[in-house]
């Protein structure tokens, strides 16, 4: 199985990313793989962040939602620009939101809520500028098998 999501569920996640990015110059990605390479999902998320080129955004405002579905592990990380301005505890609150949804098997709902929450922070600190903003990173979900 390449993903724990049907094509329709994947589309709902991508739509959440597109909606969240409409109001911000920030970039949001979701990466899914069955197993976490290494024991620490945060360390793996940092590797994936670099592999996806997320550190290359102009304002360093990329956010990655990482999910190792078979291992039931996940992480949420933001680049330096967004991490420097979000309120203390924001990443933990976002992980708690995801954890609450994931605990009852609602991965799509959890990701959609987490993406929306990250989008609100990105909008607050990195509002969309129609003059110069462009979609710097793909909105699709990336998968490792």
UniProtKB/TrEMBL annotation:
TPM domain segment(s): 5-120
A Pfam family the protein falls into: TPM_phosphatase
PANTHER family: BLL7265 PROTEIN, UPF0603 PROTEIN YGCG
Protein name, per record: TPM domain-containing protein
